[in-house]
TrEMBL record:
Keywords attached to this entry: Cytoplasm, Transferase
Membrane-spanning parts: none
This protein's name: 3-deoxy-8-phosphooctulonate synthase
One annotated GO biological process: lipopolysaccharide biosynthetic process
GO MF term list: 3-deoxy-8-phosphooctulonate synthase activity
Coiled-coil region list: none
Length: 263
């Protein structure tokens, strides 16, 4: 995507885990747009219109597909930034493509051939999150499914590898492996710190380590960073344990830009 991936700086994909309402989405987008403009960081607003992968049946899943997607489009139009959201089934691809510029394939679904084909056929950028169970080299096959479907606009996102039952680790060697296939590589700095499969049914996380993961990613030359942010993560309806408090974002990005400039 020209203007995002072809800049000297890394690009940022950021926003709330889920669209909880128009006011929160607009407030978060306005703040991130101001910060990224100041630091000359290309920006993509992220917000899930529906959360399909939930630990418990009573977990928050969304405010309604069409309502959330309209908010997503409104954010893009108001602030002049590309937007992205995740899709979970073949029939969602065309629907989401009417509102978003980039379609995100969830990590657990990265091998789902029909979903990759459906996303590719929309002509939108397809961002494939690497499964927690997948080697970096296996991602070339997911990428090829999109290319073979007539769409060469593919990104890959690293978001950690399952380590035991309740933790994830990031193998930074995998970034270079995935870059060798010619696609921009994004590092997910918040989901990489999840602690899944908790007995409570609520995923845990280590947000204090977001800066550590992000600094390492920029140092090894990742093209983009992904993170979820919220004014008050503790009150967020989804992924409360993982998101970066929005008031910490500018300081973090300022440090990361300096690292980028140094290398």
């Amino acid at each position: 995507m020209k203007g995002i991936t072809d800049q000297a700086n890394f690009f940022l994909v950021a926003g709330p885990c889920a669209i909880e309402g128009e006011d929160m989405a607009m407030r978060i987008a306005e703040r991130v747009v101001a910060i990224t403009a100041k630091l000359d960081i290309p920006y993509v607003f992220k917000g899930s219109y529906r959360k399909a992968n939930r630990s418990r049946i009573d977990s928050f899943s969304g405010i309604g597909d069409e309502k959330a997607l309209k908010i997503l489009r409104k954010v893009g139009e108001r602030f002049g930034v590309p937007t992205t959201t995740d899709i979970h089934a073949d029939e969602e691809a065309a629907m989401a493509a009417e509102y978003a510029d980039i379609l995100q394939i969830p990590a657990f679904l990265c091998r789902q051939t029909s979903l990759l084909v459906a996303a590719a056929e929309t002509g939108k950028v397809v961002n494939i999150k690497k499964g927690q169970f997948l080697s970096p080299s296996a991602m070339q096959h997911a990428q090829q499914k999109v290319i073979d479907s007539g769409n060469d606009q593919v990104w890959m996102t690293e978001r950690g590898v399952t380590f035991g039952y309740t933790d994830l680790v990031v193998d930074f060697r995998g970034i270079h492996t995935m870059q060798s296939y010619g696609a921009p590589v994004v590092l997910d700095c918040t989901h990489s710190l999840q602690q899944p499969n908790q007995s409570s049914g609520v995923t845990g996380g280590r947000p204090a380590m977001i800066e550590t993961i992000a600094r390492a990613g920029v140092a090894v030359g990742v093209e983009g960073l992904f993170l979820e942010t919220h004014f008050n993560p503790a009150e967020a309806k989804s992924d409360a344990a993982n998101m970066l408090p929005l008031d910490q974002l500018e300081d973090l990005l300022t440090k990361l830009v300096r690292i980028r400039q140094a290398i």
